[in-house]
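User: Can you recover a sequence for this backbone? Please restate the input before giving your answer.

Assistant: Of course. Working from this structure:
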């Protein structure tokens, strides 16, 4: 893997914008919902005559207002069946009683009537205490604090669910005591959905219905009076570029240490998605950092690998906790959704030139050497070497953590299972040994191979030297012919060979034939 210099120029806006794309998926909304609401909020801020500081507060409040809504996704799925579906209810009814009644109608969705009745009673008696919207706000402003965002933004976030009539959450503020940036950001969130579903007329009708109740009537008047100029071009504007270009005050690139700290804070935040994930990404990052040191990776590659470890599960936000926290086996559709989460991670990061290389590496952490992984079914040389380390570290850490369908493995059992994956041809042996060494296990030292060949390439070279064709090598090693061909091409390039005879000479000269290494002749001469 070649680290790209672009990763040195990461802006805070890019990190928050990328995270917002996962938040969109977690709400069952199309990507860029939050970015579009940010543009709407900034336009309202301009019409309200806010100065640069006020505009900055609106900007970051808009990007963060819903960012904490996955923090109790486990409980949402527990009571309502699908946390993504229940969160989407508010956009139809606003954050009022009708939205609450609609959510209540989803209690125990998919279960028999008697079970749903019992669940409803349990929820009314005690379960509702597990569903406190103020937790979402606390999570949002805790992240803001870790990212060093201004106190004005934190203050606005604390009032972001309050309503003009005082009947919001936590219900401590009303009317003008609610910070103006909070009022703007909250209304912009709903306007974006209403406009996307019903155009300018749909957006103005929605806010008029809640004027003086949820929304500031003065803001409603501004929106309705100037709706065409505020909303008409939302479908044509290049949203990501417009939001990044609009970043106020904190527009400079973050220092390298600040990027790492910010990614760690966001990784811990994303892992709140499920109690089974807590601390996962941070632990994987520590493993790959130590493994990279053991393998003596160049500093730039090691840094890229660590950052990929911190972001590799961002895409989990787009998958319901009804799947992540399920105690039984997953159905085919559920498995397909799980297989999408690395792709979601890549999509979240790909619009940023600085973050795209990290996302591309992170997206390969579930690929496997034999092509059985996901999301793209890459195999062998198509998987970046650093991604093989990340995949091994992610698998080891996951084995050592409890999951809803199993208890945590002991470190020794996890190590044995990881090595079994190597024997099965799914994980890279060098990567696994590096990760196990990083985790404190005694590693099986591999002799240094000539010409920089990997252990797998030595296996392939021995078979080629014995006269096997590409197809026969593929059968012997349980890999695809294309993967075998890629290995052979790379081997020849490394050793300077053009044919089997030259490859054989190199193998003999370097002592690569050991007793008992003869291939299984029953698998040769494949038709």
């Amino acid at each position: 893997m070649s680290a790209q210099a672009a990763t040195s120029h990461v802006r805070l806006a890019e990190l928050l914008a990328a995270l917002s794309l996962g938040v969109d998926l977690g709400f069952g909304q199309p990507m860029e919902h939050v970015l579009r609401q940010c543009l709407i909020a900034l336009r309202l801020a301009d019409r309200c005559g806010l100065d640069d500081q006020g505009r900055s507060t609106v900007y970051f409040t808009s990007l963060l207002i819903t960012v904490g809504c996955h923090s109790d996704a486990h409980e949402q799925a527990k009571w309502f069946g699908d946390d993504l579906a229940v969160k989407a209810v508010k956009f139809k009814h606003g954050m009022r009683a009708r939205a609450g009644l609609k959510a209540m109608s989803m209690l125990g969705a998919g279960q028999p009537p008697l079970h749903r009745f019992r669940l409803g009673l349990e929820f009314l008696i005690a379960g509702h205490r597990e569903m406190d919207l103020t937790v979402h706000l606390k999570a949002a402003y805790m992240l803001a604090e870790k990212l060093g965002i201004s106190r004005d933004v934190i203050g606005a976030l604390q009032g972001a669910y309050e309503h003009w009539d005082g009947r919001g959450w936590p219900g401590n503020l009303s009317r003008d005591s609610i910070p103006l940036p909070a009022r703007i950001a909250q209304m912009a969130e709903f306007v974006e959905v209403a406009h996307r579903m019903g155009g300018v007329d749909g957006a103005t009708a929605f806010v008029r219905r809640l004027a003086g109740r949820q929304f500031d009537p003065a803001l409603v008047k501004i929106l309705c009076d100037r709706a065409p100029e505020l909303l008409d071009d939302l479908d044509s504007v290049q949203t990501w570029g417009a939001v990044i270009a609009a970043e106020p005050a904190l527009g400079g690139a973050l220092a390298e240490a600040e990027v790492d700290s910010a990614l760690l804070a966001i990784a811990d935040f994303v892992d709140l998605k499920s109690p089974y994930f807590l601390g996962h990404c941070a632990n994987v990052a520590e493993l790959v950092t130590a493994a990279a040191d053991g393998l003596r990776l160049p500093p730039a590659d090691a840094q890229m690998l660590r950052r990929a470890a911190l972001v590799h599960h961002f895409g989990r936000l787009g998958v319901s906790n009804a799947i992540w926290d399920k105690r039984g086996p997953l159905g085919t559709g559920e498995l397909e959704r799980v297989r999408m989460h690395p792709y979601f991670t890549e999509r979240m990061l790909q619009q940023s030139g600085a973050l795209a290389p990290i996302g591309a590496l992170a997206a390969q952490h579930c690929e496997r050497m034999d092509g059985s992984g996901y999301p793209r079914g890459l195999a062998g040389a198509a998987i970046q070497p650093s991604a093989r380390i990340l995949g091994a570290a992610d698998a080891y850490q996951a084995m050592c953590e409890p999951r809803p369908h199993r208890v945590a493995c002991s470190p020794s059992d996890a190590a044995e299972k990881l090595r079994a994956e190597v024997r099965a041809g799914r994980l890279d042996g060098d990567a696994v040994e590096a990760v196990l060494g990083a985790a404190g296990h005694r590693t099986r030292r591999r002799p240094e191979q000539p010409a920089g060949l990997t252990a797998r390439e030595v296996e392939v070279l021995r078979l080629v030297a014995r006269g096997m064709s590409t197809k026969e090598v593929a059968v012997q090693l349980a890999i695809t012919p294309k993967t075998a061909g890629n290995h052979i091409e790379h081997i020849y390039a490394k050793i300077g060979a053009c044919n089997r005879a030259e490859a054989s000479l190199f193998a003999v000269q370097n002592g690569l034939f050991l007793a008992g290494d003869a291939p299984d002749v029953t698998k040769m001469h494949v038709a």
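That completes the design. DSSP finds 28 helices and no strands in the chain.
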